[in-house]
Amino acid sequence: MGVVSKLPVYMERIPGGGILTTSAEKFFNWSRASSLWYMLFGLACCAIEGLMATGASRYDYDRLGMIFRASPRQADLMIVAGTLTHKMAKRVKILYDQMSEPKYVIAMGGCANNGGPFYYDCYSVLKGVDKIIPVDIYIPGCPPRPESVMEACLKLQEKIKKQKLGDWSSSTS
């Protein structure tokens, strides 16, 4: 007899009579993608014009389950927004190393992606954040629109939902 014969009895006890089945991997990935906590820091103009505008009430990160955290130990998403200088790069690397696994990085704006307008004529600007930490999503623009930032977050959520549980240690490769 077993569970199959008793299944109608169990279904009647569940409100609505439905059963939802899924794998643990899909459940964990859905929960991780639906609760991204991003580290709140900004390097230059992209932080104000793109990142903070996206977190404001008009676009509202909260509806995606994204909450800002001031501590790297509580964050799993780093959004590098703005011009990254060589002096600041060491500190960004330290913050990235303090984040717990799995961790993700979004490079936002031309300066974070490849040095922006400072690429040729400035010795102090790093020519892309991917020189020091791995990047998952690149957002072009100077500064990127809030819609672009929201789309990047949705793309990151899709990427997280497709991951395998064993890939956590190499989540940003």
Question: Which features characterize this protein?
Answer:
single chain, 173 residues, 5 strands, 39% helix, five-stranded parallel sheet, alpha/beta, 6 helices
Write the layout of secondary structure elements.
Elements: H1 2-13, H2 24-33, E1 37-39, H3 45-55, E2 67-69, E3 77-81, H4 86-98, E4 104-108, H5 110-114, E5 137-139, H6 146-161
Parallel strand pairs: 1-2, 1-3, 3-4, 4-5
Helix pairs in contact: 2-6, 3-6
Q: What fraction, in percent, of the residue positions are helical?
A: 25-40%
Low-confidence stretches: none
Radius of gyration: 20 Å
Our measurement of the CA-to-CA distance between the termini, rounded to an integer number of angstroms, reads 49 Å
Class from secondary-structure proportions: alpha/beta
Q: Based on DSSP secondary structure assignment, what is the total number of beta strands?
A: 5
In brief:
This protein is α/β, with parallel strands linked by helices and 173 residues long. It has six helices and five strands.
